[in-house]
Amino acid sequence: MKCTGPWSMERIEAHLRETAIPLRLACATPSGHPQLLSLWYLWRDGALWCATSPGARVVRLVERDPRCGFEVAADAPPYRGVRGRGSATLYRTRGAEVLGALLDRYQGGRDTKLARWLLARAASEVAIRIEPLALASWDFSARMT
Description:
- It is built from 5 helices and 8 strands, in the order βαββββαββααβα.
- The chain is an alpha+beta fold.
- Strands 1, 2, 3, 4, 5, 6, 7 and 8 form an 8-stranded mixed sheet that branches.
């Protein structure tokens, strides 16, 4: 995998594991224009994992064209993050498993109002696995402090 920028692969993986903000995912629409959306994610076994409902537009877009771009970067200074391009694969039988892990990561457990609402429909959730093909990091911390 191609990896550029100031961070090592170990530092990139640490950022992806530790940064609990939504991933920005870009997929191609049938017209060729990018569709940008935000999804909760987790970094597991060298890939980014997300979950969504089966009727979400991103499911149709990934079925049509698995190529995608992504970014994990906060909106507040100091600006730093990871972006890349990859290939997305849908897993219709792993959605509930991934959703549970995402709830643990972003909600601190499965006993919040939102978690209960999402878990009530977890059986139909679709997992999205994004295999990175290229990663780039940036970190403007030194010049912003």
